[in-house]
């Protein structure tokens, strides 16, 4: 009986600790899908997502995206960075109806190296935004689109 | 959802392909000229045990049948992963995978 009570006490304590940890987590760590995806300009989307659109250009972000995309419906994009303590990586396309295409939450232990395929409606600039040590860094590249990705 | 998870040195490399139309809500049906309602994945989560090791949020610009790859530390061969997505219509899918 004594044993069981110990166990119960332990599990109750454990549960409260977990609750505490959840409550203490920053906004992004428990992010639900953000309204930023509905916003129709880059600055607004970044402001909604990160609470700031102040970014510094960085050559430590490797954005891999084709210079010419024959098919705008499927454009492979890879982002990799050596910046320290990366918590979030986002991909934006400035002339798409809603520029924010995807946003990745990177917990500790997960590599700051992600790949995805996105749609581009027309020739435009694709940018990667990386949150490192709580600051935003970016790099961009123009992608020429031969056939747009948004038509039917 | 097709998932391939494999150990590469000390990192688990996960590649996944989610079967989903990813409708933007901007496209029209050519025959009826009616707008096809938006249906796209908004959240995709990968759990290793109780720990969320990866979370992706998508907008409408992610291509049909989304392909995503990422890698994380702290796993070993044989470990189980739980992957799930949820779309804007409330549909969800949960898939289990084993790291090879």
Describe the structure.
The complex is a heterodimer of chains A (152) and B (100). Chain A is an alpha+beta fold and 152 residues long. Chain A has two domains: 1-30; 35-145, Immunoglobulin-like (Sandwich), CATH 2.60.40. Chain A is built from two helices and nine strands; from the N terminus they run H-H-E-E-E-E-E-E-E-E-E. Chain A has helices at 2-24, 42-50, and strands at residues 55-57, 61-64, 68-71, 75-81, 86-93, 100-105, 113-118, 124-132, 135-147. In chain A, strand 5 and strand 6 (100-105) form a beta hairpin. The N and C termini of chain A lie far apart (68 Å). Chain B has a single domain (2-23, 36-98), classed as Immunoglobulin-like. In chain B, strands 4-3-6-7 form a four-stranded antiparallel sheet, with no helix packed on it. A three-stranded antiparallel sheet of chain B has the order 1-2-5, with no helix packed on it. In chain B, a hairpin with a 2-residue loop joins strand 1 (2-8) and strand 2 (11-17). Chain B is elongated. Chain B starts with a strand and ends with a strand. The model of chain B has no long low-confidence stretch (mean pLDDT 95). The chains are: A alpha+beta (152), B mainly beta (100).
Keywords:
heterodimer; A: 152 residues; alpha+beta; Immunoglobulin-like; 6-stranded mixed sheet; 9 strands; globular; B: 100 residues; mainly beta; 4-stranded antiparallel sheet; 3-stranded antiparallel sheet; 52% strand; elongated
What is the element layout, followed by pairings?
The complex is a heterodimer of chains A (152) and B (100).
Chain A: H1 2-24, H2 42-50, E1 55-57, E2 61-64, E3 68-71, E4 75-81, E5 86-93, E6 100-105, E7 113-118, E8 124-132, E9 135-147
Chain B: E1 2-8, E2 11-17, E3 41-48, E4 51-58, E5 67-73, E6 80-87, E7 92-98
Antiparallel strand pairs in B: 1-2, 2-5, 3-4, 3-6, 6-7
């Amino acid at each position: 009986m004594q044993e069981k009570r110990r166990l119960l006490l332990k599990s109750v304590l454990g549960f409260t600790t977990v609750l505490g940890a959840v409550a203490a987590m920053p906004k992004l760590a428990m992010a639900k899908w953000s309204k930023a995806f509905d916003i129709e300009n880059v600055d607004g989307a970044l402001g909604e997502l990160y609470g700031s659109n102040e970014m510094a250009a960085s050559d430590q972000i490797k954005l891999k995206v084709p210079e010419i995309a024959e098919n705008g419906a499927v454009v492979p994009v890879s982002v990799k960075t050596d910046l320290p303590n990366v918590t979030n990586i986002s991909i934006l396309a400035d002339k798409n109806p809603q520029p924010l295409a995807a946003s990745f939450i990177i917990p500790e232990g997960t590599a700051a190296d992600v790949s995805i395929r996105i749609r581009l409606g027309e020739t435009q600039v694709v940018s990667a935004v990386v949150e490192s040590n709580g600051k935003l860094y970016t790099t961009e590249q123009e992608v020429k689109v031969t056939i747009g990705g948004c038509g039917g | 959802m097709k998932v391939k998870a494999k150990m590469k040195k000390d990192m688990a490399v996960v590649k996944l392909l989610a079967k989903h139309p990813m409708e933007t809500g901007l496209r029209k049906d050519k025959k009826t000229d009616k707008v096809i309602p938006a249906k796209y994945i908004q959240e995709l989560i990968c759990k290793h045990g109780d720990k969320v090791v990866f979370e992706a949020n998508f907008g409408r610009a992610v291509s049909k049948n989304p392909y995503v790859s990422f890698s994380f530390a702290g796993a070993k061969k044989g470990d189980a992963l739980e992957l799930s997505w949820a779309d804007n219509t409330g549909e969800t899918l949960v898939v289990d995978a084993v790291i090879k």
